[in-house]
Amino acid sequence: MTKYTLPHFGQVSTENLEEYYDVNIDFKGNEILLDLNFENSSIDTPKLDKVKNFLENIEKFDKLNKTYIVEDYHDQDGDTVKYYIEHHLEEIDQDELSTLINFDDPDTKPEQQLLAKLELVRVGLYPDSEDHFAILDYSIGEEITDYLVTINTDENGQLDYMSMES
Asked: DSSP string covering 131-152, please?
């Protein structure tokens, strides 16, 4: 039985996979969830190499996703991030949001402050999937909202699509 060692997960059997593996890690001072999702009970080494590469480069992909998030917010045709920000400014009590942003700041609008608070909370990898390789979830705070900005990418971190989900 062949074993393959993945960052954060340790050894997995390439011929006797479970459907789901998960681990919490510290990422930039926050705890995030990493999960691996397999459709089959076996996998080839090249696919696991892609998983390993993605896991080793989460910080790089996070930076790339932050540019996607900012671009979507400023894009006239982009609606995901703008809707996420506006939804939370309208629906969540200002007192609760004041733990995240300063409504009295004359230099930075609340929208911009909230945009800057979107942080990575989960990385889900799907090496067998034909639809997407990775799903990265961003939130202003799981204690404040169940809504997420979800970014779907290929194994190289290239944006497939972005959505708001709960």
From this structure: S-SEEEEEES-TTT-S-EEEEE
Question: 156 in helix, strand or coil?
Answer: coil
Dihedral Cα 121, 37, 55, 50, nearest 10 deg: -140
pLDDT of residue 11: 96
Cα separation, 63 vs 69, in Å, equals: 10
Strand partners, 4: 12
**Position 129: which residue type?**
S
Domain regions of the chain by residue span: 3-165
Q: Which residues neighbour 78 within 8 Å (Cβ) at sequence distance 6 or greater?
A: 71, 72
Nearest-angstrom CA–CA distance, 165 and 56:
26
Pick 1 or 158 by higher pLDDT.
158
CA 133, distance to chain mean position in Å, is 12
Give tens-digit pLDDT for 82-92: 999 999 999 99
Checking if the pLDDT of 1 tops 80, the result is no
Q: What would the two tokens of residue 134 be? A: 């990775």
